[in-house]
Design brief:
This protein is of the alpha+beta class. The protein is built from eight helices and 26 strands. Helices cover 16% and strands 33% of the residues.
C-alpha cells in the first residue's frame, strides 16, 4: 500500500473546524445521546446462530480476538502512520445515512478512524445482506473536492481519474481487505430512546465503490470511534464536550449494550475511578499506564525486563490499550510465569490457564488491575473466566510480549467513559442491563 506524506495535526484540525461548528446545533441542545451496541453473538445480532453453544461462540470469539490483537501489534511494530488494520468487529450499531434516511448496520470500532460504507454504483463490492447505500438518492450527499484542506489532510487521499476534482480515498488493511471510493460529507442519524435520535449534518466519511476482503455480510462498513482526526468522535468533539463511553452487557445477556455521547457518557459518584490517558503512536488507540495487577491479595508489579537495569526505574509501567473490539485481555507475559505452571493446558493451545469445573463455575479470587495515579479496577469472574467446553472454564487474560490490551470481556458490567478534553478514562462497576 502506498504511504502518503503526513501533514501536521494542526492542519487537520483546521480542516475539520467548519464541520464541528455545524454540529453544535445538532447535539449541543440535547447535551448528549445514546445508541444501542449489538454484540455479534447476541440474540438480536444478524450473526446469531441459535444452534451454536456458548462454548462454540466463546472459542470463535477467542480466535477473532487473537487475530485482531496480532494485527494491532503488527501495526505498532511497523510504526507506519498510514498502515490501517481491519480486525473484524465485535459490536455493531444501527445508523441512518442521507436524506431521506437510509438504515444500515456498521461496525462500531474504537480501533478505527475513518468511517465508511459501501456505495452504489459498485465497481466491486463484497456481498452484504442489507441494501447498499446509493448517494444519488440523497439530497444531502456532497463529495469533497481535491483542493480542500479536508482532502489534503487525509492519509491515503488521491486525486485524478475521470472525476478530476473529487477527493478519492484508498485504504488497504493488514489482512488484504480494502476499501476505496469518494470522500464525502453526509447527514448521519443515530440514537435510541429515551434520548431519541440525533441528526449529525456533514459528517466526513468514505463512500466505497470498490471494497473487498473478509468483511462480514451482515453490515456495511465501519463507524470510526478512535482518537485520530477523522474519527466520528473527533468530528463531533466540540458538540459532545469530548465525552463518549459505553456500558457492555455480558455476551449472552438479552439486554442491550449502550454507547453514549456527550453528557450521557459522564461518570461520577461512589465507585468511579479515573485514569489519565497517555499519548502513543498511532493516535487511533486509547492508552493508559498499567503498573501491575493482583490476584486476591498477591500483587504483581510491572518491570520491563527488556530494558537495562539502569532504566528499570523509569520502566515500571506498561502502556495498555483500551479496545472494545478485542474480546480477550492481553497482559505483560511476566505476570503469568508462576500461574501457568499450576494449570493444565487448554484444548487447541488457545488459552494459557484453564480449569476443570463441573457446572462450568469456578471459585476464583478477584483480579485487580493497578493503573497509574492509584486507580484500581477490580475484575470479577464474569470479566476473567469463560466457558470453553462443557466442564472447562478458562482464564480470558493472556500473556503478550507486545502491547497489552484491555479487552471487552474485562470491560463488561462497567460503565466506561472517555473525557478527551481532560485526557481521562473512567470506570465504574454497573449493572449494564439496567442502563
Amino acid at each position: 500500500m502506498a504511504t502518503p506524506d503526513e501533514l501536521p495535526r494542526p492542519l487537520r484540525s483546521v480542516a475539520l473546524l467548519f464541520l464541528l461548528c455545524l454540529l453544535e446545533s445538532a447535539v449541543g441542545g440535547s447535551g448528549g445521546f445514546t445508541a444501542n451496541l449489538i454484540h455479534r453473538d447476541s440474540p438480536s445480532s444478524p450473526f446469531h446462530d441459535p444452534s451454536a453453544t456458548r462454548s462454540d461462540r466463546m472459542r470463535s470469539a477467542a480466535w477473532r480476538s487473537i487475530s485482531r490483537a496480532r494485527r494491532v501489534w503488527a501495526r505498532h511494530s511497523l510504526n507506519i502512520q498510514s498502515e490501517m488494520t481491519y480486525s473484524g468487529g465485535e459490536y455493531y450499531m444501527k445508523v441512518s445515512i442521507g436524506s431521506p434516511p437510509f438504515d444500515t448496520l456498521v461496525i462500531a470500532d474504537t480501533g478505527s478512524d475513518l468511517s465508511w460504507t459501501q456505495c452504489e454504483p459498485c465497481i466491486e463490492c463484497y456481498r452484504q445482506k442489507p441494501l447498499i447505500f446509493d448517494p444519488r438518492n440523497s439530497s444531502t450527499y456532497e463529495t469533497v473536492q481535491c483542493l480542500t484542506r479536508l482532502c489534503q489532510s487525509l492519509d491515503g487521499a488521491r486525486c485524478g481519474g475521470d472525476d478530476g476534482g473529487v477527493c478519492k480515498y484508498n485504504y488497504t488493511y493488514g489482512d488484504g481487505s480494502f476499501t476505496s471510493g469518494d470522500m464525502a460529507v453526509e447527514t448521519f442519524r443515530m440514537g435510541t430512546p429515551p434520548s431519541g435520535t440525533i441528526t449529525l449534518p456533514r459528517i466526513a466519511f468514505g463512500c466505497g465503490y470498490d471494497n473487498g476482503g473478509i468483511f462480514a455480510d451482515a453490515g456495511s462498513g465501519i463507524i470510526g470511534l478512535g482518537g485520530g482526526p477523522f474519527s466520528l468522535i473527533s468530528q463531533i468533539e466540540g458538540s459532545i464536550g469530548g465525552l463518549f463511553g459505553y456500558c457492555l452487557v455480558p455476551v449472552f445477556s438479552r439486554g442491550a449494550s449502550k454507547i453514549s455521547f456527550g453528557k450521557d457518557a459522564a461518570i461520577s459518584g461512589p465507585g468511579a475511578v479515573s485514569i489519565p490517558l497517555v499519548s502513543e503512536s498511532p493516535d487511533t488507540y486509547y492508552y493508559v499506564n498499567l503498573e501491575g495487577f493482583s490476584v486476591g491479595e498477591t500483587r504483581f508489579s510491572y518491570v520491563d525486563n527488556s530494558v537495562s537495569s539502569e532504566a528499570k526505574v523509569s520502566a515500571k509501567v506498561a502502556k495498555m490499550m483500551i479496545d472494545s473490539g478485542t474480546t480477550l485481555t492481553f497482559m505483560p507475559s511476566q505476570f503469568f510465569q508462576n500461574l501457568e505452571s499450576a494449570s493444565p493446558r487448554p484444548p487447541h493451545g488457545m488459552l494459557d490457564l484453564c480449569y476443570r469445573s463441573p457446572g462450568s463455575e469456578i471459585d476464583a479470587p478477584v483480579v485487580t488491575l493497578h493503573f497509574a495515579g492509584g486507580a484500581d479496577m477490580a475484575l470479577n469472574t464474569v470479566n476473567t473466566f469463560a466457558q470453553f467446553a462443557q466442564d472447562l472454564v478458562c482464564f480470558t487474560i493472556m500473556p503478550t510480549d507486545s502491547v497489552p490490551i484491555l479487552g471487552n470481556l474485562a470491560q463488561m458490567e462497567f460503565k466506561v467513559g472517555f473525557d478527551l478534553r481532560k485526557r481521562m478514562v473512567s470506570f465504574m462497576a454497573t449493572d449494564c442491563t439496567a442502563q
